[in-house]
From TrEMBL:
The keyword ATP-binding does not apply. This is Methyltransferase domain-containing protein. Residues 19-38, 502-530 are annotated as: Disordered. Keywords: Methyltransferase, Multifunctional enzyme, Transferase. Residues 513-528 have a biased composition (Basic residues). GO terms for molecular function: methyltransferase activity.
Length: 781
């Protein structure tokens, strides 16, 4: 069982009420058709372009209107912006509605909007006749024509004869797959021909990438000529639909007019409408940036829909919120390096209520500096926090590195418009969503002593803080950590620095550069913790920070004991390949405490080797039993089917300790390439027969992913042995061990505890000075 939440944490959870989160009222999407009507929708994309299908569709509808992407009232604000006569009061503009179907949109525009010069076209003769009869008395001047929107519009209706063309879902139907691009071009050619010199084309779409890309290229790209394109979002406060409905308005303008910014986006990355003076503008070369912004908004709307109801037991993590800080400190080196990262990251925890009358929802602020704690970095930990409250949903907020947060008031002000997207829709509108925190502050970040960017790993920082025990007492040491911004709640590497005199006879490496001075833990202006100067500190090589590192090395010693024991007795070295350097702590521990292993470290990120040397005391050399292959090492060979090792390149042990850059896959480590059959078979082929072992750290969010990893290894090493170990009860990591061949019966029956004692007593007296692995507690199954 995971550890209980400490009493100090529970007692310090403070509630701070804020004004009730109220969303402006807006009509929800119409529900004007019974559920059976959904069966009438196309089963194949090709049916969107089939005249017979649409004739049958409208016949089955039996004169009941079908509203694609909203009603007239939903779209009225955008029509008002598009039709100039609305503002001028003339209302004499000629309007063409293409692909009109049996929607009431045109009749509402005629009757409520006051525009009478409306022509509707559709290629279904039956629906045109139906609508002509339906509106004969209510809209006597409105026209209905049977026409193909991809050919003959200009010829049949006159070139330049319309001021506005309205398209409510027709482009999506015509351009239903990327392969139908030719039909989309034909339709838009007709639209351009039929529009007047100052004409406007309003298209309502769900904005699939290829459709939006076509609109951007056609009306906002460098070859778009005399067009401008504005994009708007139809807001859905009740999250009734998982799709973001986009309204694009393409307007003709005079050649050379304006500043070259042809595209404007009038909604933010959450799909919320922006005032015209707040709209983001883009030039023609920035089409990829426009697509990125729209995709983020589409993902947020889909997520809002997914989370509109509470589902007990659900956990949804890594929801990134990209906000500009409300206040900045020009003197802060952190702020200057922060423009590209999300400001906040949310996790949604839906709880099984413990209270018979639970409250709907609360926001929990994870304290800065403690985002790595099991309690705040894992789903199980956050569930425990949630169960200590009386809420059905907890919105957990992590404040990300690279940003400065002044105080709780600033955080609450920034999050107010954000959390409304994740509050359950069944709450009482008057409910006031509280904020919870540990203590009275937002916590403090560790001191940043270095930062930079690596080609493969992205942005990183090196942090320091005093090493304290569970009671908060200073241990007289400094902890230095490497953090990758792409996975901020995970410590990539960690070393402990101790005063040089404390090391005594143990030779350490100086702890790297340090500019700040001080003798006690303090906070700087940005709320970061400072720590004593590390200039006279050295790295404590007896310290392994991560439980899974101890498990990896402990399992290697325990499972390969006879093989390694013979090498130690004969003063021979066995060869170990370590894939993944990090800060170099594991490699250097092996060098100091398992001297019979000659370690080759492979690190594909060459710049990381420099970081390890400068800030984590890493050093290597052939005479030290340790060397590094960076950039083009053995990993590339193992992953490449066209290459192979030479006869001399055989290994007694291969250790895989690499993370996965793509967090969306649900597995933090390793990257998927390291779980392929080819990679595993390559490892097996290059292990020595006797005692050869593959050890891999796996961290997956689900048991299915973990079991899939185990299954892949079991399949490859079916003739040997496969074992699994969980470093601690609350650890998300699993360490997998795969022996190429089965051990002798005598060795396999020897208890791990006995093997541990034999190892420490017989082989390496140096290891007695530390408790390096805790092997007696190692549980390998």
């Amino acid at each position: 069982m995971p550890p209980p939440v400490s009493a100090s944490v529970l007692k310090s959870l403070k509630k701070a009420s804020i004004e009730a989160l109220k969303s402006p009222s807006a009509p929800s999407q119409p529900q004007d058709s019974p559920r059976d009507d959904l069966d009438l929708l196309p089963q194949h994309f090709q049916q969107f372009q089939d005249r017979a299908y649409w004739d049958a569709f409208f016949r089955e509808r039996k004169e009941r209107a079908f509203e694609w992407y909203g009603t007239y009232n939903d779209l009225r604000p955008f029509v008002a912006k598009t039709v100039e006569g609305w503002r001028a009061g003339r209302k004499r503009e000629r309007v063409l509605v293409i692909g009109c179907g049996n929607s009431d949109f045109s009749a509402d525009l005629y009757q409520e909007g006051g525009f009478q010069r409306i022509v509707n076209v559709d290629f279904s003769a039956s629906v045109i006749e139906e609508m002509r009869c339906k509106t004969r008395e209510s809209c006597p001047e409105m026209e209905w024509e049977v026409m193909d929107v991809t050919a003959g519009l200009a010829e049949g209706l006159g070139r330049g004869s319309f001021d506005v063309v309205l398209d409510k879902g027709t482009l999506d139907a015509i351009f239903s797959t990327p392969e139908s691009e030719r039909h989309a071009d034909m339709m838009m050619d007709e639209v351009e021909d039929v529009l007047s010199p100052n004409g406007r084309y309003m298209v309502v779409t769900l904005g699939q990438d290829f459709i939006l890309g076509k609109l951007l290229e056609r009306f906002g790209g460098s070859r778009s000529g005399d067009w401008r394109l504005s994009l708007h979002a139809v807001e859905d406060p009740e999250a009734a639909s998982p799709f973001l409905t986009i309204v694009g308005v393409a307007s003709r303008c005079q050649a050379g007019e304006g500043d070259g910014k042809r595209i404007s986006v009038h909604f933010d990355d959450a799909g919320r409408r922006l005032a015209d003076d707040k709209a983001r503008t883009f030039r023609a070369p920035d089409l990829a940036d426009v697509l990125s912004l729209v995709n983020m908004a589409q993902e947020r709307v889909a997520l809002k829909h997914e989370l509109r109801d509470i589902v007990s037991g659900r956990f949804k993590g890594e929801i990134h919120i990209w906000l500009a800080p409300r206040s900045t400190d020009a003197t802060s080196e952190v702020v200057s390096a922060a423009p590209d990262g999300p400001r906040y990251t949310l996790s949604i925890v839906d709880l099984v209520p413990q209270n018979p009358a639970p409250l709907p929802c609360a926001v929990f602020i994870i304290p800065q500096g403690r985002e790595h704690d099991w309690l705040f970095s894992t789903a199980d930990g956050l569930r425990q926090v949630g169960l200590s409250t009386d809420y059905r949903r907890l919105i957990c907020v992590r404040m990300n590195r690279g940003h400065v947060f002044r105080d709780m008031d600033e955080v609450k002000t920034e999050l107010g418009p954000v959390v409304i997207d994740f509050v359950p829709v069944d709450r009482d509108p008057a409910y006031m969503v509280p904020y919870l925190a540990v203590g009275d502050s937002i916590g403090a970040r560790s001191a940043v002593v270095a930062s930079g960017e690596l080609p493969g790993c992205g942005r990183y920082c090196v942090e320091e803080e005093e090493d304290k025990d569970e009671d908060g007492k200073d241990r007289g040491a400094v902890v230095r950590r490497l953090i990758f911004y792409r996975n901020q709640h995970v410590i990539q590497s960690e070393v402990r620095l101790v005063p040089s005199l404390q090391k005594g006879k143990n030779k350490g490496v100086e702890g790297g550069k340090k500019k700040k001075k001080g003798s006690s833990t303090k906070k700087d202006r940005a709320g970061r913790r400072t720590c004593p100067s590390a200039q006279n500190y050295t790295v404590d090589w007896s310290y392994l920070s991560f439980d899974y590192h101890r498990t990896m090395l402990g399992g290697l010693i325990a499972l390969s004991y006879p093989h390694l024991r013979r090498a130690a007795k004969a003063q021979e070295r066995r060869r170990c390949l370590l894939i993944g350097l990090g800060g170099g702590g594991l490699a250097l521990f092996v060098r100091h405490y398992v001297p019979c292993l000659e370690v080759t470290v492979v690190e594909l990120e060459e710049g990381l080797v420099d970081v390890a040397k400068e800030w984590f005391g890493f050093s290597c050399g052939g005479e030290q039993g340790l060397r590094v292959d960076a950039g083009n090492g053995h990993t590339r060979v193992l992953l490449n089917e066209n290459e192979s090792f030479t006869e001399m390149e055989r290994w007694d042990a291969i250790l895989v300790d690499v993370d996965n850059a793509d967090a969306s896959l649900g597995i933090s480590c390793p990257a998927p390439d390291f779980l392929t059959g080819h990679f595993l078979e390559s490892c097996r082929a290059r292990l020595v027969d006797e005692g050869g072992i593959l050890i891999m750290n796996v961290a997956a969010r689900s048991s299915d992913l973990l079991e899939g990893s185990m299954g892949a290894i079991r399949k490859t090493f079916a003739s040997g042995e496969v074992h699994e170990a969980r470093p601690t009860e609350q650890d998300v990591n699993r360490v997998l061990f795969a022996l190429k061949t089965q051990r002798p019966t005598s060795a396999s029956k020897l208890s791990l505890g006995v093997q541990t004692e034999k190892w420490l007593e017989e082989c390496f007296p140096e290891s007695k000075n530390v408790d390096p692995l805790g092997l007696c507690d190692l549980n390998i199954s």
